[in-house]
């Protein structure tokens, strides 16, 4: 069980809370990848969507990180 709980506990979350957060990141990254794909074919569309998603994810994961020591 330690393998499933050690990391989530290090960021102040339960296993289930961490799973939810990870899934929300996965969804945002999939959306960003889709936007980047559309932008690659139609460069006049979604010109800032990918970078906006990356910035939002960075803020959630790094800038506002809470670590439990």
What this model shows, in words?
This protein is mainly alpha-helical and 69 residues long. The chain has one domain (2-68). 74% of the residues lie in helices and 0% in strands. It is built from three helices and no strands. The relative contact order is 0.14. The model has no long low-confidence stretch (mean pLDDT 92). It comes from Ramlibacter agri.
List the helices and strands and how they pair.
Blueprint: H1 2-10, H2 15-41, H3 49-63
Helix pairs in contact: 2-3
Keywords: Membrane, Transmembrane, Transmembrane helix
Transmembrane segments: 20-46
Organism: Ramlibacter agri
Number of domains: 1
**Helix proportion of residues, in percent?**
over 70%
How many E strands?
A: 0
Distance between the termini: 20 Å
Molecular shape: elongated
Biggest pleated sheet:
none
Q: Helix count, per DSSP? A: 3
- Please tell me how large the radius of gyration is: 15 Å
Following the backbone from N to C, one meets helices and strands in this order, namely HHH
Structural class, judged by helices and strands? mainly alpha
- Outline the low-pLDDT stretches: none
Portion in strands: under 5%
What would the average pLDDT be, to the nearest integer?
92
Task: Please tag this protein with its features.
69 residues; mainly alpha; 3 helices
In short:
The protein is an all-alpha fold and 69 residues long. The protein has helices at 2-10, 15-41, 49-63.
């Amino acid at each position: 069980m330690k393998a499933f709980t050690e990391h989530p506990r290090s960021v102040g979350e339960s296993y289930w809370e961490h799973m939810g957060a990870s899934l929300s990141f996965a969804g945002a990254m999939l959306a960003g990848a889709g936007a980047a794909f559309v932008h690659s074919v139609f460069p006049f569309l979604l010109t800032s969507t990918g970078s906006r998603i990356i910035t939002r994810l960075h803020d959630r994961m790094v800038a506002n990180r809470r670590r439990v020591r």
